[in-house]
């Protein structure tokens, strides 16, 4: 083999090795089971048109959004976040509405396929005697589309809208859906990463228990 040919082979081998080393591994993206937020969805985030949404809200028949209980608002990422309610006219001050109790926040959108699979699981979880309250957060979506999906799947828990991405920003949420967070009575929030998408109500219960047991 000539010297020139040997150098050519060496360059090819090193190039292939570099590509393999840089090729993304399946475990490099732990959120692969979720839907990545599409760039186009930036344009889909809308504030609700209360006059136009009346029929869709009536059809979806979602539970009313949580209201402040009078408990002191603890410090935390959601303490000052105020968002529109999906099911009715009005704003929800999340810090005050969730104060004093643990709550599971489920971030979802109508365009998210795993979210569609997860809603029935969360419905089943709410029927458990050990369940904590569940509140949905509609992310980067049209309110009308979110209500149409709610009409179809009949969530048994309320949802708020996040048209300005205030909830996502406060939580430091990744650009994937669904994401689930346990907000503890002290106002802190713990992201659920195991599993990324709930497939069984027992998984929800276990994740909630683990998050509430976490310190710091």
TrEMBL record:
Residues 67-213 form the Thioredoxin domain. The keyword Transcription does not apply. InterPro entries: AhpC/TSA, Thioredoxin_CS, Thioredoxin_domain, Thioredoxin_ResA/DsbE_sf. Keywords: Cytochrome c-type biogenesis, Disulfide bond, Redox-active center, Signal-anchor, Transmembrane. It comes from the Bacteria. PROSITE patterns: THIOREDOXIN_1, THIOREDOXIN_2. Pfam families: AhpC-TSA. Transmembrane segments: none annotated. Signal peptide: none annotated. This is TlpA family protein disulfide reductase. It comes from Pseudonocardia abyssalis.
